[in-house]
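Forum > Structural Biology > Help requests

Title: Can anyone predict the 3D structure of Early nodulin-93-like?

Hi all, first post here. I have the sequence for Early nodulin-93-like but no way to get a structure on my laptop. I'd be grateful if someone could post the structure tokens.
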Amino acid sequence: MGVVVNPREWWSQKRKELETRRPGCDFMIPSVVETPLDPKEKQLLDTMAQDKRSKASQCTEEGLKAGVKAASIAAVVSAIPTLIIARTVPWAKANLNYTGQALVISAATIASYFIVAEQTILECSRKASYAASVERKQAAARSEAA
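Reply #1:
Sure, ran it for you. Structure tokens for Early nodulin-93-like below:
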């Protein structure tokens, strides 16, 4: 076929070819936004979107709290040995100035914050996703039973 010079023209030509082969049968699936919705469906979609936003906000809050907690513990746990070693070990006395000590402590603190916050957010979203899937299965079972 060759190299497509103008993709827009190629795509419109391809769509016209498909329309002429099967009139009335569009191979493109319209998105939810494109399809006309009745007010009940629109309200349901808005409610679902609001629930997703609130769950995401809740997971972010949990991640923030767990990350700060872990970072504060890591700061203390890394600061005490770093400061003791910097004053007692001859190599550390010669090579670790105050900036180096601060970098060691802050690296441990920052790493622990991000690791714990990410794990907590992922765990929370996994739980919320699982709960939503169980809820959908139960709703489908109820609708089949009715």
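Helices lie at 7-21, 39-88, 90-95, 98-145. The mean pLDDT is 84.
Shout if anything looks off.
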